[in-house]
């Protein structure tokens, strides 16, 4: 039984993220991609294969060359998943901002909505 790879597996590896970044700027052949890494061309080719299986890049043949191109629209799945956390943190930061602004502009209140008397000092 063959395991289907997904976009999250593809971007989990820093080498593959760097390859996507390189290809986002311009299409490249395998040799040119390999020049950016201190690993064998074969090791880079394995990363390329995973990116292709995850539908994040396409490879087209141009004569004897294999040109890799990014398919960045397929990163939408990652964007949609992470967006929920952006909404979560946005709400938390708004609540924190409200607390900071509220406590810095008004004296603290008791449960009966009266200002709290400052503590008495012992003499």
UniProtKB/TrEMBL annotation:
UniProt-listed SMART domains: HTH_ARSR
Q: Which Pfam families match?
A: HTH_5
Q: Which residues form the HTH arsR-type domain?
A: 1-90
Q: Where is the composition biased (Basic and acidic residues)?
A: 114-123
Residues annotated as region Disordered? Answer: 101-123
Q: Return the Gene3D superfamilies for the record.
A: Winged helix-like DNA-binding domain superfamily/Winged helix DNA-binding domain (1.10.10.10)
Q: Which InterPro entries match?
A: ArsR-like_HTH, HTH_ArsR_DNA-bd_dom, WH-like_DNA-bd_sf, WH_DNA-bd_sf
Q: Which SUPFAM superfamilies match?
A: Winged helix' DNA-binding domain (SSF46785)
Query: Sorted alphabetically, which CDD domains does this protein's record hold?
Result: HTH_ARSR (cd00090)
| NCBIfam families in the cross-refs | HTH_metalloreg
Please report the name of this protein according to its UniProt entry: Metalloregulator ArsR/SmtB family transcription factor
- Species of provenance: Aquimarina gracilis
């Amino acid at each position: 039984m063959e395991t289907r790879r997904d976009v999250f597996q593809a971007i989990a590896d820093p080498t593959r993220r760097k390859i996507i970044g390189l290809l986002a700027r311009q299409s490249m052949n395998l040799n040119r991609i390999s020049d950016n890494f201190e690993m064998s061309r074969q090791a880079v080719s394995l990363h390329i294969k995973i990116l292709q299986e995850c539908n994040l890049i396409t490879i087209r043949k141009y004569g004897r060359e294999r040109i890799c191109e990014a398919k960045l629209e397929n990163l939408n799945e990652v964007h949609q998943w992470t967006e929920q956390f952006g909404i979560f943190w946005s709400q938390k930061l708004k609540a924190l901002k409200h607390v900071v602004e509220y406590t810095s502009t008004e004296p603290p209140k008791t449960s009966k909505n009266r200002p709290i008397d400052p503590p008495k000092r012992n003499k």
